[in-house]
Amino acid sequence: MSETEFRYGKKRFYDNKKFPRGFAKSGDFTLAEEELLIQFGETMSQLESGVLEPVNADERRFLLVLEQPEKATTKLERVWLKYVRLARGRKRFHTLNGRNKPDALDEFVDDSDIETES
Fold first, then answer.
1. DSSP 54-81
2. Cα–chain-centroid distance for residue 49?
3. Rounded (5°) CA angle 46-68-29
4. Domains contained in the chain, number
5. Where in this protein does the record put region Disordered (predicted)?
6. Confidence (pLDDT) at 38
């Protein structure tokens, strides 16, 4: 990632609230994406929140991409948008139950197997 002018963060970036075991162990990020987030995440977070001002073309472009995500082309831009989507977006919830009503299973039950109390 040496071809970028993007500033490294002053400290390593972690999100212990949404990704307590690390970005890569969550299953959502690759090891390379995790490394980008750890190295540049603090800078990207501070640029996004307005704490830092952009000092070069890469950082100005990053702010443009935050407003227009479809223009993301670099790995840094794409990984940050992915992080934002996963960390701040709604978490999908999948149940193990289907939408079939229990009555639909009646045809599979053999009444002769059911013992009745007398």
1. --SHHHHHHHHHHH-GGG--SHHHHHHH
2. 18
3. 60
4. 1
5. 96-118
6. 93
Residue range 15-22: mean pLDDT, rounded: 86
Q: Which two tokens stand for residue 108?
A: 């599979």
If you count them, how many residues does the chain have?
118
Count the neighbouring beta carbons within 10 Å of the beta carbon of residue 12.
Answer: 11
> Is residue 1 scored above 80 in pLDDT?
no
pTM score above 0.90: no
Tell whether 72 is covered by a domain: yes
The Cβ of residue 73 has, within 10 Å, a number of other Cβ atoms equal to 9
Count of C-beta atoms within a 10 Å radius of residue 87: 14
- Each residue of 62-82: pLDDT tens digit? 999 999 999 899 999 999 999
Residue 71 CB-density burial (10 A; 0-12 exposed, 13-18 middle, 19+ buried): exposed
Report which residue type is found at 73: T
